[in-house]
Amino acid sequence: CFCFMMSVFFDKASVAARVAGFVWILSIVPYKLALPIYDSLSIGIKSSLNILSNSAMSFGIRSIIRLEVLERGLQWNDFTTPATIDEELNVGLVITMLLVDALIYLTIAVYVEQVMPGEFGIAKPW
Question: Which keywords belong to this entry (predicted)?
Fold first, then answer.
């Protein structure tokens, strides 16, 4: 959905690929900035950082790694259970946020395609 969203902003594929790649790499920055203060962040802040799909994937992988280190692994019965007692974020929440990300990206793509249809189309007034 991210690529669909990015594609509606550009007419040339080469420019779209460069910009989308750059934005894709930038979407990991919130996770990297949150790492040093991760334990002091609230669940609301962690969830809001999951709006960007790369950050959400990183938080999810972090939770899975914690479960593996504890030799529990990720099982269906603890999908919504945090890895540790002091952890609030769980894999179920991360996957929910990834679905929300997909819906946001898809909504933006459809909206921009209707408002700026490109060379062959009539723009809608909204």
Answer: ATP-binding, Membrane, Nucleotide-binding, Transmembrane, Transmembrane helix
Three-state helix/strand/coil letters over the chain: CHHHHHHCCCCCHHHHHHHHHHHHHHCCHHHHHHHHHHHHCCHHHHHHHCCCHHHHHHHHHHHHHHHHHCCCCCCHHHCCCCCCCCCCCCHHHHHHHHHHHHHHHHHHHHHHHHHCCCCCCCCCCC
Low-confidence ranges of the chain (pLDDT < 70): 118, 121, 123, 126
Question: Given phi > 0 = left and psi -120 to 50 = alpha, else beta, which region is 71?
Answer: left
- The residue type of 90 is N
The first and second tokens of residue 12, run together, are: 């040339």
What's the CA gap between 125 and 31, in Å, rounded? 37
pLDDT digits (tens, 9 = 90+) for 90-114: 999 999 999 999 999 999 999 988 8
Give the Å distances, CA to CA, from 17 to 1, 93, 118. Answer: 14, 30, 17
